[in-house]
Request: fold
Amino acid sequence: MSANKSLQLTLAIIKPHVIKNQVALTKIRKLILDNEFQIVRNERISISRSSAESFYAEHSQRFFYTRLITFMSSGPSDVYILARRDAISKWRELLGPTKVYKTIISHPESIRGKFGISDTRNAAHGSDSQETAEKEIKFFFPNFDVKIWFSNHEPEFRAGNTVFNEEIFLHEIKE
Ligand SMILES: Nc1ncnc2c1ncn2[C@@H]1O[C@H](COP(=O)(O)OP(=O)(O)OP(=O)(O)O)[C@@H](O)[C@H]1O
Reply:
């Protein structure tokens, strides 16, 4: 793989049941770092019912919709913008398949395999395409400009000219 290949951004959500479990959250954060993701933005937010409804609007006719909205607005979530080469597919690979009851058997080492507790409470979210990632980043970080990040900051992140701030779980460009 070319060292010059551009990084990609993805939007990750660590869902409410994980935030209530410090041990699980710490292990997931370690997996993020061990898999060479850099954390570009990091916010802990309580997603409102109406935000959850619009974020998951495409599922509004599905049988699990009400339970999904109730869960996603049940407490704080961590929302991260992650950078890496092939961030979207790598993060989804690390997550494992959506449905936890099967994933526990088929992908026991994945995040959902290890930390999911039901098909709804499946531990974490990841954008499924570049277009979705941009929309989702805008949804949670309206002041973050993807174009500006790519022109001004991506080269620094790609070159590893960043320092990891453990206290706030964030990579920052070296002064
Ligand atoms: N069959 C199901 N039963 C219960 N909840 C489900 C089911 N399918 C999906 N969900 C919930 O809805 C969310 C969105 O489902 P989607 O099909 O978009 O999966 P995904 O893209 O893997 O998940 P996410 O969007 O959270 O990354 C899932 O993450 C899960 O919380």
Observations:
- The mean pLDDT is 97.
